[in-house]
Amino acid sequence: MSDTVLHDLCKGFGALLSRSKNPSFPEEASRLNERGNLPLHAACSFQASADVVETLLKAYPGGASQPNSAGNLPIHQAAMWQAPVETMELLLSRHPEGATVRNQYGSLPLHMAASNQATPEVVRLLIDNYPDALHLQNDDGMTPLDLALSDESASEAIIAMLEGRPPPPELTRRQKAEKYEERAKALERKLHSMRETGGRQNKDLQEALLAVRRLADRFPHALYAAGLDPNELEIAFSENSSPADHILMEAIKKRGVIARSNQAPRDRVEDLLASIVGLEHVKSQVRGLRRTAEISDLKASMFPTSSLSAASGRPKPGLAKYISPGITEDTGRPHAHHMVFVGHPGTGKTAVARLLAKAYHELGLLRKPKFLEVERMDLIGRDKEQTTLKTREVLDEARGGILFIDEAYTLGMASKRSKIDTGIDAMTEIIAAMDDSTQKDDSDMPLIIIAGFPVEMQIFLSHQPELRKRFPITFEFPDYTCAELSKIYMDLAHAKGFDMEDSLNEDIIAALLEQETTVAWRGERNGRVCEMLMSGVRAQIRQRMRRAQHEEDDEFDPHLIMRSDLVNVMQMEFK
Question: How far apart are CA 323 and CA 68, in angstroms?
Answer without folding.
Answer: 40
